[in-house]
DNA sequence: TCCGTTGGCTAATGTGCGTAGCTTACACGC
DNA sequence: GCGTGTAAGCTACGCACATTAGCCAACGGA
């Protein structure tokens, strides 16, 4: 009985691969165990169960997106930075459509996910700084950016757009319109 | 052995009630059967199985929303009509948050759902008529409306907004910004 | 009243989650 | 090199759910 040498992160990695290949609905402990070359109950040595595994996957995905955010915002500011963030969001979802469906929509309500969610938030807040928005204005602006990014991404990743052509143009228009609606900044 | 007097529509109705009360993840044949006062296998006399039941629920929800659309657009035109449609969308989702999660995002790709999806589309196309958009402009505009409505609704119904106050204002701003971005019409 | 159809049932199978309890590989101390 | 404790694997089991098979009774029309 040689050991497989698993770890929590290895199990999460296998779960992400299962999702990428077969969709989020195919994430079962049986599938993950098979991919790890292990019997299903053995996974309980590394994760608390299916629910916890899904939470871990959520954390992983949130952090991956936060990494992309940080990279996209680096060296940019103002409208340029916001545009780069919005395109980084979409690029991640296009690269990993199934994985996006595993990203929790309300991370701040879950203690384990909150840290990863706040990482994303901070990058956006920094990018908005040049506008010197009042707190309420900042809340509305972040919400509107999120509505557009999430709305577009969830529709695109779920195949919700009938005609695939010109999606870039639609997304560009959405971003441009939102930026135009912000007050001018120096 | 008295009969329960079920029908396909009665089973779908029970499924919608289960979703409303316990969330879309709780939609199981066992739960629907219990609500109907029937053993689970008996449901197969009325629906083909869980997958088909979910499709039927999707059709029901799509049509309910299309009904709201038709009612909201009646007697209005132009920006007034678009605004009414957007608020009808959100009002439906606020009234039935769990049900919204059962609404398929890509109805046009499924023959059984397409008719209900097209009903919605036609109401929006009619409301946009005063702008006399060229076909590409119409596609982009409908997509943008959908991104905003679906993005906002899915975040709101999933508890994705941290602060509940002022959500009306955020949504109003999104609609107003989009309408402002359209060319003026006579 | 008779009989075919139809809507209900029980029984059984397969899959998946999760628990209990056993065994053994491996790292560490001597 | 040799115990030995821990932890990583295992099998066996119970439960929930979807689905199929096959039985039986209720209902409605001739």
Automatic annotation (TrEMBL), chains A, B:
Pfam families listed in its UniProt record: TetR_C_33, TetR_N
DNA-binding region, residue range(s): 28-47
Molecular function, one GO term: transcription cis-regulatory region binding
Keywords: DNA-binding, Transcription, Transcription regulation
PROSITE patterns per UniProt: HTH_TETR_2
HTH tetR-type domain mapped to chain residues: 5-65
Domain of life: Bacteria
DNA-binding recorded as keyword: yes
SUPFAM superfamilies in the cross-refs: Homeodomain-like (SSF46689), Tetracyclin repressor-like, C-terminal domain (SSF48498)
Gene3D superfamilies: Homeodomain-like, Tetracycline Repressor, domain 2
The protein, known as: TetR family transcriptional regulator
Source organism: Catellatospora coxensis
